């Protein structure tokens, strides 16, 4: 039996639902030593901003039980270097690229989108309105449903490519803002970004992370992420890209059952940079065993 | 760079709380250079979640060796690995020590477990005059495994010179000045800072292996920044280091 | 050196800051086989409601990476049996009792408080406005800052004993409702209750938990709980009882540094029912090693 | 009830994917009764987080035995325990089988790994007439370790009677009717349900050991409810069971 693994997000067709999450694969160069980027559904590049960002001083990461905190501070090469040095590589390795944009103002989101819109290699935009590690940036936007609506509207107007809004989980009802995204013409929502967390050194009494708080990712957050996906799925008709704690194909199946059209893998890339391809294989086998001919049937197939 | 499930040959306690693990891993053994490191996934489960970085301590045929102490959960589990177990190794990572070049005298300066990469380096320095300076708080912290022509310093004076290893080095300055020298170092940051100052003052080449918390070890997480002379940019310890010319980084 | 481990929450003085969390020690009977309840700072009894509650059908719990989901559904013996059968035991074993109350209406909170107020064994009330597993109950209240204020006000009026409000973490800014609690005369806030999460069986496509979603607890949530405690501590002057993922004394120290006056241990009781006493020992040793004569100095001693 | 760090004596694979772990634990060995269980913390770390419940399979002097298959992470780690390792045991838990009473014939009915508690029970039933009925899907699922006077049933007919174990029991009804009988059972829920019906119909006493996901194992989490005849209340599998008279619970 040959299984159809392809999925659609708006008018974006992916050969399979496995997407590498923003900030966990850089711009693809290093991870391509371990995995074949042309076979992965898509890669979301590290959040890009108009100007390069140096990011936070060390310590930027700390391990936690079945998870990790990071406060990278959106360190990135900036729009210009991204266009001149990073896009060509991604084109060359034939990968489906979703470009993640982070900004401090609505105008900056729009400006970045416009500057990147002409690049064929970029197949969709993911708008990060949820990064917890930048003071002036994401989190405030992310908590404000109105702001999410305005950003969606303006970015939508700036591009004909699919617009995906990446949501913060640090809110009580994530489905409300998913509704707004749909109303304002967004094509999909990505859920979730990291949860705000911290850790202290019990000798120095200082936060273990320079930025005081960081974003929690990894298997620890999987149950929370699944619940957010389910909440959106039960309340809003919009494609969902599920994210949070996926390490293997069975986690991925859970996310699809809970309502995800596609899903992203983040932290696991650090541990197993070939995880994406292994998940694709696992999904194929699962479909064969359970006689599923089209993987997309799984989406929101929960029996509740 | 490869990911390899390497069978453990043995784990021995070579010193109090210091373990030497031998794993069979031909592909890494043939590629790795002194000062490069491996990122090891200790169990096949999701806890401990992240890989743990370890310098390659030595290479012998198809075997690679790691030297470590029990620090937290990861190293505790590692110390219990026996024949029949495996370790999942991602390697070789980072830039190792630069051995090539125009110098006669190689000086190794290590503090505590900073000794880890030097048995392998010592082997590869074949032909050079080698002096090794090893420091620790007490005699018990001084690990001399696999090294040559050793002088030791302890803070409490329980072994060798009483004081820190950079002071000991200073005492040897006249002797050091006789040759074109390159220093290879690894150890705690205060030691590296003192050493950097000493080397810059006396115009001695010095490479230092640095440490930092790491998530990936190969440049995709941006988790391991190190401050440089350039103000608006960090380097990455895992990819641009872990070995740096001490002049290039702020330790 | 003898270390003073005592702490004060309002006019409640505890011999040490270790509190056993509601729902994780029943009414004390079973756990007293493993630990000396008279030596523990306090025990919070399972959320009690006016009438007995049967709770949710199985499956009620599922393990997750470094955590667990539960949807017990506030199963409890009801006010009457609690008074007649449970309080006498707790008095006998000489334990400091904080009574946790769950209700569906403000009136029910008040009624329970009044009915229990005369019992000397009960030293304080913890008002659960945050349980994620009962439909009509906690969560709606918990998300509504105004409702939290009204409950605090009314319960405050009904008792002279310390009133502790237990908060849901499923909100963006927990410190806002802590402010309201303070304004309305609450003596302390407990943070956090569990995070909403779920898990699916990938064969049946059903939720693993009958109730669909459950509450995530255990080490997985520790970084999130610590960040919530820190947030309250930096924004509101009110005693905080930190909760979430504590398994040993070093976790407890982190919570105190982050702003907790006392702390509760929940899930770890299932695994090590003597954890409370072990934590007390560990705290004492830590204080000796770091020359702390009064443990309460640790509270909010973060160096940021 | 005690918590005890018990040294592992050995772990053997006694059947395909079926392991028998022997641990030295005098205090539990002297207290535990057939059908009671132990809640085992498999590592000293916070993952896997919860203890895992296991019936005591046998007791011999100071040793207790557990029989299990590799199901998930916990049992995988358990199967690797060797001499020198420990398991942290919380026990004895729950109510075991009631052996006392007025009956002549003890019948054991087990499905698959439901066999686990019966080697110990068989020993303790000393003096009674014992018959054992064991079922499985195929020959490979039929575990007979430590049992006596065995009849087997497999769904595919690869061993013994072709069909399920309750059907096999029915075929033996005339023989069973001859004595005052008590049935002791453990196995998958469908088997227990069929058995319950059979026993009620034929007025045979029957005790069944049930299973449920558990967090604590001793009554503090309320995680393990089981439906009873009484509508407004659950019983707890860990505290009120795991062995119940089949008439008292809805399986
Ligand atoms: C390039 C490099 C080479 C190393 N070589 C060796 C070696 O040869 N022998 C040896 O014993 N140790 C070495 N270390 C240190 C070693 O990685 C840590 O001791 C090990 O990660 C501890 O793991 P644990 O689980 O026992 O400790 P835990 O404290 O339980 O966990 C360690 C966690 O802390 C993080 N962390 C925080 N700060 C640091 C830091 N400065 N360095 C490393 N990890 C940190 C790690 O990322 C990891 O997630 C090296 C580190 C680096 C970066
Ligand atoms: C009273 C009792 C006695 C048992 N005796 C034995 C025995 O002698 N031999 C044996 O092999 N197995 C026995 N089991 C089942 C055994 O506990 C599970 O196989 C074991 O927990 C699997 O752990 P794991 O980590 O390998 O599997 P995983 O699937 O990784 O994790 C198991 C998790 O699932 C939960 N769970 C969900 N449903 C159940 C269920 N119906 N029963 C148990 N846990 C469940 C557990 O609480 C645990 O958290 C018994 C169970 C109970 C309740
Ligand atoms: C080190 C690190 C850096 C991240 N950087 C970004 C980022 O720049 N932009 C973004 O939208 N998400 C970022 N994320 C969030 C991930 O894309 C993802 O949403 C999150 O890690 C949860 O998924 P996971 O549990 O699979 O890691 C980052 C995550 C990590 C761990
Ligand atoms: C099985 C279980 C039942 C619980 N029941 C209650 C409850 O009845 N009332 C309440 O306020 N909190 C209840 N809680 C929440 C705990 O008191 C605590 O806030 C939470 O578990 C986080 O702490 P932990 O990570 O230490 O477990 C329950 C938690 C668990 C795991
Ligand atoms: S450790 Fe990930 S970039 Fe260096
Ligand atoms: S398992 Fe906790 S009450 Fe039964």
What labels describe this entry?
heterotetramer, A: 304 residues, alpha/beta, TIM Barrel, 8-stranded parallel β-barrel, 4-stranded antiparallel beta sheet, 9 helices, 33% helix, globular, B: 251 residues, Elongation Factor Tu (Ef-tu), domain 3, Rossmann fold, 2 domains, 7-stranded antiparallel beta sheet, 7-stranded mixed beta sheet, 7 helices, 16 strands, 36% strand, binds flavin-adenine dinucleotide, binds flavin mononucleotide, binds FE2/S2 (inorganic) cluster
Structural notes for this entry:
With 304 residues, chain A is an alpha/beta fold. In chain A, 33% of the residues lie in helices and 19% in strands. Chain A has helices at 78-92, 106-117, 138-143, 145-158, 174-183, 222-235, 249-257, 268-271, 275-289, and strands at residues 7-9, 12-14, 18-20, 42-44, 61-64, 67-70, 97-101, 122-128, 163-166, 188-191, 195-197, 214-217, 240-243, 260-265. The two termini of chain A are 29 Å apart. With 251 residues, chain B is an alpha/beta fold. Chain B is built from seven helices and 16 strands. Chain B has helices spanning 26-31, 73-79, 118-124, 165-171, 173-177, 189-201, 237-240; strands at residues 2-15, 18-24, 37-41, 52-55, 58-60, 63-69, 86-93, 105-111, 129-136, 150-154, 161-162, 181-186, 205-209, 225-227, 234-236, 243-245. The longest helix of chain B is centred in the last third of the chain and has 13 residues, at 189-201. In chain B, 51% of the residues are buried. Classes of the chains: A alpha/beta (304), B alpha/beta (251). At the A-C interface, strand 11, helix 6 and helix 7 of A face strand 11, helix 6 and helix 7 of C. The complex binds flavin-adenine dinucleotide (FAD) (2 copies), flavin mononucleotide (2 copies) and FE2/S2 (inorganic) cluster (2 copies). Residues 21-24, 46-47, 70, 72, 74, 100, 128, 131, 166, 193-194, 217-218, 221, 243-246, 265-267 of chain A line the site of one flavin mononucleotide. One flavin mononucleotide is lined by residues 21-24, 46-47, 70, 72, 74, 100, 128, 131, 166, 193-194, 217-218, 221, 243-246, 265-267 of chain A.
